[in-house]
Amino acid sequence: NYKDGLFISPKGGRASVYPLVPGIDFAGTVESSDDARYAPGDKVVLTGWRVGETHWGGFAQKARVKADWLVPMPAGLDAKMAMAVGTAGFTAMLAVMALEDHGVSPDKGPVLVTGAAGGVGSVATAILANLGYEVAAVTGRPEAADYLKSLGASIIVPREDLAEESKRPLEEQQWAGAIDAVGGPMLARILAQTKYWGSVATIGLAGGPKFPGNVMPFILRGVNLLGIESVMQPFENRLRAWERIGRDLPMEKLESMIQMATLDDLPQLGADILAGQVKGRMIVDVNA
Hints:
Blueprint: H1 2-8, E1 25-29, E2 43-47, E3 71-72, H2 79-101, E4 111-113, H3 119-130, E5 135-139, H4 145-151, E6 155-158, H5 160-163, E7 175-180, H6 184-193, E8 194-202, H7 216-221, E9 224-227, H8 235-248, H9 251-257, E10 258-262, H10 266-274, E11 281-285
Parallel strand pairs: 4-5, 4-7, 5-6, 7-8, 8-9, 10-11
Antiparallel strand pairs: 1-2, 2-3
């Protein structure tokens, strides 16, 4: 996950406690439990709750966490596939659900996905395409075009087409919705191009936390800007999202996103993900 890169890499500057075991996701088997909801042998998943940030995380063979932070392993998934989803895929599903809840349906027009070759973007592209949406995938890596098309993207948008700040408060309407992992000037540009009553789900800030936007898309086109938070989601929302993942994310497409790594690979992976050089989903095998 991008956040893992922030905690692993010295350039990330996010670690506020030390020592710290990073890793904001993990999946595994309960070894012992003081909570009646879980018993030894149960398969579980954890994402969020600031694990790997302020509480020791998943880049280890064992972890002790609050039972409230766990979710039972979703039907149809094992530990490997659950971690192929991870926080990135969970966030992507929350974003898709938010667009649906705000009336963005396949018949309304294309949905734009930025950072499409990354973790959130890859899963979002696959889910949206499977649900019948026309997906426009934004990438700064031309070599990723075939990969994105294999996930279901219909349109490949070069990143430079959206990278510069718009000179107009509103542009030609193009997108019924969007899932944006970039922020910065790109988010402002997307809002200016969103159709009447469209919605943009913002999930990341790879391009910076500030965006030079204006209120015109909101007050003249009724555009919604939806903040997607995945860390502190209540249990019921987590169950709903994981159930949707099991139903709406084609497992063969998820499998095609996976690359395997070991604990020894983490320093380089942290640098690579911050540089935007990691494609798809990277799974760390802590036993390798």
